[in-house]
Every structure is written in C-alpha cells, then in structure tokens.
C-alpha cells in the first residue's frame, strides 16, 4: 500500500490478464496525440508486443483493486528506458504520475543505472511539462519525438 495519498494504492507486476486494460487506457490517452504528431492511427499490437516482451518489465498501479496506471521499462546498458507510462485521466493531477516516475527511477537505481530516458511526442505538451517538472531535459529529437533524459543515482547532480 502506498501511504500519504489518502488512497488504497499499490504497485504490482503486470499479469497477462491486465493487457486489455492497459491497451484500453493507452488508446484513450494516446490516440489523438499520435494522430496529431504523426498522422497515424493507434495500433494495439505495438503496445501488446512491448508489454509482453520478455526483456521488458511492466508494473500496474491499482487503487482499490482497479488498474489506474502502468509503466513498461526496459533495461539498457547504462539506462532504464521508458517504453510506456500511462495514467487513467481520472487520476491525473493527483501526484500518481510523479509516484510512478519515482518508482521507475528507483528501479533504475536498484540496477545501478545512470539515467532514465523516454521518447515523448512533440505535440504532447502536458507530458513534456510534466517530465521537465521532474528534472528531465531534452536530449535529442527524431521526427516528431523528443528524447528526454534524467540522470539518476550517485551522479544525479548533473543531467
């Protein structure tokens, strides 16, 4: 149980039975962003492949037994890369996104990784501001995606 939020919230490792819920949440949150950034439609298979990849790690965030968010990460040589992070719209702006990002950073520190990295669509202004608020900096661009990065661990004084 996560304390301090006044909610019965907890993280747990994703189970295959959770995949339809994750797809529905991601599609709801991301369809319009992908369309505006790339002019492409949402594809469920892309997310399904990512969360079921044996090299990735996915946790869900539950409140009162209901999945309200999740993240999928992959461990690289010296960084943790966020493949996907989503929070149900009803639960945004309550500190849960920051909590999930802190959980990812702790996961990276556990493996003595140096950075957390992610791609964010250039049209996703809310997410960009959120990541910047948490100390993430622009590190590159590929088409309509920005690479954002944050240094973690013992050398986290410099990004």
Q: What does this 3D model show about the protein?
A:
With 159 residues, the chain is an alpha+beta fold. The chain has one domain (9-155): Gcn5-related N-acetyltransferase (GNAT) (Aminopeptidase), CATH 3.40.630. Helices cover 33% and strands 33% of the residues. It contains four helices and seven strands; from the N terminus they run E-H-H-E-E-E-H-E-H-E-E. The chain has helices at residues 19-38, 44-52, 96-110, 125-133; strands spanning 9-13, 56-63, 66-75, 79-87, 115-121, 137-142, 145-151. Strands 1-2-3-4-5-7-6 form a seven-stranded mixed β-sheet, sandwiched between helices. Helix 1 (19-38) crosses helix 2 (44-52).
What series of H and E elements makes up the topology?
Answer: EHHEEEHEHEE
How many separate helices? Answer: 4
Radius of gyration, Cα only, in angstroms?
Answer: 15 Å
> How many domains in all?
1
Strand order of the largest sheet: 1-2-3-4-5-7-6
The amount of helix comes to 25-40%
- Counting helices, strands and paired strands, the structural category is alpha+beta
- Beta content comes to 25-35%
Terminal Cα span: 31 Å
Largest sheet: 7 strands, mixed
- Looking at the overall shape, the CATH architecture is 3-Layer(aba) Sandwich
Shape type: globular
């Amino acid at each position: 149980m996560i304390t301090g939020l006044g909610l019965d919230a907890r993280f747990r490792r994703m189970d295959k039975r959770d995949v339809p819920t994750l797809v529905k949440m991601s599609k709801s949150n991301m369809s319009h962003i992908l369309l505006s950034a790339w002019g492409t439609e949402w594809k469920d298979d892309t997310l399904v492949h990512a969360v079921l990849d044996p090299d990735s790690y996915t946790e869900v965030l539950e409140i009162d037994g209901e999945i309200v968010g999740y993240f999928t990460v992959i461990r690289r040589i010296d960084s943790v890369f966020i493949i996907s992070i989503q929070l149900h719209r009803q639960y945004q702006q309550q500190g849960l996104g920051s909590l999930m990002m802190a959980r990812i950073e702790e996961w990276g520190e556990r493996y003595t990784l140096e950075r957390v990295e992610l791609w964010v669509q250039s049209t996703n202004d809310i997410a960009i501001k959120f990541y910047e608020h948490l100390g993430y900096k622009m590190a590159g661009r590929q088409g309509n995606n920005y690479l954002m990065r944050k240094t973690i661990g013992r050398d986290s004084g410099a990004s």
